[in-house]
Structures are given as structure tokens and as C-alpha cells.
Amino acid sequence: MKHVTVYRKPGEYAGWPANYGIWNWGNEIVTGFTLGSHSCEGGFHYRDKDRPFITMQSRSRDGGLTWETLEAPLNAPGDVAICADEHMNIDLGPVHRRSNPPKAFDRHIDFSKPDFAILMGRTGIRGSCESYFYTTNDRCRTWQGPYSFPMFDLGGIAARTDIIPDAVDGKKCMFFLTATKVDGDQGRVFCVETRDAGQSFQLVSWLREFPEGIENMPSTVRLPSGRLLTAIRCRSEIESKGWIDLMYSDDNGTNWGLLSKPVTGTGSAGNPPAMLYLSDGRLCLIYGYRDKGAGIRSVVSEDDGKSWGEEIIIRDDAGNHDIGYPRAVERPDGKIVVVYYYNDTADSERYIAATIWKP
């Protein structure tokens, strides 16, 4: 395994790549993260909530060995970081009343274009949070948007980027999202589909409409058989302990069942999964671990998610629980590049790191 630094500066708080996305074109890899100021008085996350955050974007052209980072080339509602409202003590209000508000989508998306990517944004994780999206056709060098995303008569939608384009029809794509519960708290996972290149979206199903705890931040793959697999970050509302469930659908998302529990413990408050279907036919699931021995871990399945091997410790040298939120891609040589946020000590800055390895 090789650990590299993607972005790091003293006094700064760089975090949560899972809130954004990761894309690769061979050995060219692009990912995003939130950047703010470090504070030991920040609570569970050691960030300064009285200062604004911004959205950053990192690019590697050599398979994750070196990275270039700049402010993300997009128009952010309110001129602050997308996907970070809950981390700022700033009264931003509804997204459509901010500067750079989302507008109605007036284009057609070809999900099959080779240099295409989509990025989901959100205003928060509870209450009446709203979501929107951006598109790019030049490998994230420029982003178009933000564009409005429908609410489906739900109280709130907290979207992260988890999409499954149709392998044949470039006009079709499935989106896996998180909605608030009836009481306004986070979260329950559902999927929607566009069949007309983004002109309209239809709610397909809930993966579990009324979960007992908190469920959010799905990571989805489609197997060669056509089966959909979605790994979900799960958390108990009582003990705040996390785990990861794996859901499956054999009818293109209409009905869902629980296939397995790949990870029984992700530590305090949990951590989202990053799941890949590897070129050798195995499944690899990577996550942050927020307990004693905090760090980045993984499990692998050789039978399409029915069972999972022993836990692989990618690293366990973090200073405390404030780490994780991974995104991952597979390189052409079969090695995985997983990007996450990390710290060396509880009081030190949070930074973006990557690990290159072969599971």
C-alpha cells in the first residue's frame, strides 16, 4: 500500500470527499472536498463553524500519485461550499433565494459521453434541505449549473453523487439519494430515474421507507447479471453506533431486499461506504472506522455480496475519529485509489489523503 497526500495545509480543515464525487478516465482522477478552518472547539468535527467553507477539486494525471488542487470551477449557491450548510453558522436561507440559485434544467444529458460527469449538491441533511446538480462534458474542467432537482413532495432531500447510467441508452440513468424522515430528521434512501436525458425524474422506490435508525449516503453498483447492489451507511439513533447494510434489487430498483451486512461496526456515528465492482469480478467496500484504532478499512466479496471476507486494515494511525468519508476508483492496472480525509493527531489539521493498493 502507498499513502499519499492530496491536499494539506496547517490551520485548515479539509474534509468529506464522500459528499462530492470521484471520477476517472484511465489514470486521470478527479475528486472534490470541503475546505474550511480547523478549530479544536468544533465538537465532533474539529472545524470552525463561524467561518465559511468552500468547495475544492483535486486532479491526478498519474493514477493518484500526485495531485493538483484548486477551488472547484462551479457557481455555488450563496458563494459558499456546496454540501456543507450544517457545518457553517451562516444564515443562508432557502437555496433559491441565494446568489447563484439553481435554475431549471434546459438541456439534454447524454450519460454515455466519454468525458461526462454529474455532481450532486445539497443545502443540508435535515428539515427542508434541497438538492441540485451540475454537469460537465470536459472531465470536470468546467461545470454547468447549478440545476434544480425535484423534491417529489418530500420534506427534504440530501443528495450525494451516486448514479447508475443505463449501459445501452444514454438518456437513462438511476439516482440514489437520501430523503429526510417524516419528523424532519435524516435519513432514508430512495432511488429515482430519468428516462429522457434529464427532462424529468420519476421516483422509483424506497430501499427501506421507514428504517428503524438513520440510513443515508448510498453507494451503488450494477452487476453483469443486471442486479443492483446498494451499500448504505446505517446508524442507531439511540447508541449512535454505525454499520453498513447491503441491499439488492433484481427488477431494476422496483423492489429491494437485504442481502448481507458487510460491516457490523463503523464506530461512533458511522461512516459511508465506497463500493466498487472490480475488473476481476470481486466486490470491494471501503469505509472509515471511527473508534479505537481509527482509520480506513475494507472488506471484499467473491460471491457478489452474499458473504464477505475478513476486514482489511488499510491504515489505523489516525489521531481520532474525525476521518473517513471515502471515494474510490479502480485504475486500469487493477489497483484501487481511495481518497478520504484524515488527521495525525486530534488537534492537528484535517487533510485529504489517498491510498493506492491492490486488494
Rg calc: 19 Å
Distance between the termini: 9 Å
Count of alpha/pi helices: 0
Shape: globular
Question: Structural class of the helix and strand makeup?
Answer: mainly beta
- Helical fraction: under 10%
Characterize the largest beta sheet: strand count, sense, and whether it forms a barrel. Answer: 5 strands, antiparallel
Q: What is the chains' assembly state?
A: single chain
Can you describe what's shown?
The chain is an all-beta fold and 359 residues long. It is built from no helices and 25 strands. The strands form six sheets. Strands 2, 3, 4, 5 and 6 form a five-stranded antiparallel β-sheet that branches. Strand 12 and strand 13 form a beta hairpin. The chain is globular. It starts with a strand and ends with a strand. The model has no long low-confidence stretch (mean pLDDT 97).
Key features?
359 residues, mainly beta, 5-stranded antiparallel beta sheet, 0% helix, 45% strand, globular
Brief summary:
By secondary structure, this protein is mostly beta strands.
Layout of helices and strands:
Blueprint: E1 2-7, E2 12-15, E3 22-25, E4 28-37, E5 54-60, E6 68-71, E7 117-122, E8 131-136, E9 144-148, E10 157-158, E11 163-165, E12 173-180, E13 186-194, E14 202-206, E15 214-222, E16 228-235, E17 241-249, E18 257-268, E19 274-277, E20 283-289, E21 295-301, E22 312-315, E23 324-330, E24 336-342, E25 351-357
Antiparallel strand pairs: 1-25, 2-4, 3-4, 4-5, 5-6, 7-8, 8-9, 10-12, 11-12, 12-13, 13-14, 15-16, 16-17, 17-18, 19-20, 20-21, 21-22, 23-24, 24-25
